[in-house]
Amino acid sequence: MNDILLIEDSPSQAIRFRLMLEREGYSVKIVADGATGWRAACADPPRLILLDIDLPSLDGFQILGRLKRDRYTAKIPVVMLTHRDNVDSVQRAIDLGADDYLFKDDAPYELCATVAQSMR
Fold it and tell me: For 3-48, what is each residue's pLDDT tens digit?
């Protein structure tokens, strides 16, 4: 079982986040598109999902809604990742059941602490 499923379509961002988290002792699986991420979460539920909003095939909001409606994945903490910085996106993620919301520009400073807090 992976500790973290990272659903992120930017290879450079995904590698950067994975390296940061692996340094903290987490195992991380990376998936690059929404549909594959959804299937991966259902097939092998992780302890936490880091979910980009802007993804090919299914966006992060669509995946989040599916995760929180499914009884097998509803309790998995989900932290949304995005470059978006508008209040509407944050509110929509919270309304859909996100456990936290992290702006990618803040990730170098907050990613590991946010993950640790969300996995408690």
Answer: 999 999 999 999 999 999 999 999 999 999 999 999 999 999 999 9
Whether 7 contacts 51, CB under 8 Å: yes
pLDDT tens by residue, 36-91: 999 999 999 999 999 999 999 999 999 999 999 999 999 999 999 988 677 788 89
Write the class of the CATH domain 4-115.
Answer: alpha beta
For residue 71, give every residue at least 6 positions away whose Cβ sits within 8 Å of its Cβ, in sequence order, or none: none
- Where are the domains positioned within the chain? 4-115
Nearest to 31 by CA among 85, 103, 106, 81: 81
CA gap 21, 34 in Å, rounded = 21
Share of residues in the chain with pLDDT > 90 (%): 82
Residue whose C-alpha is closest to residue 81's, from 111, 114, 103 = 103
Beta bridge partners of 80: 51, 101
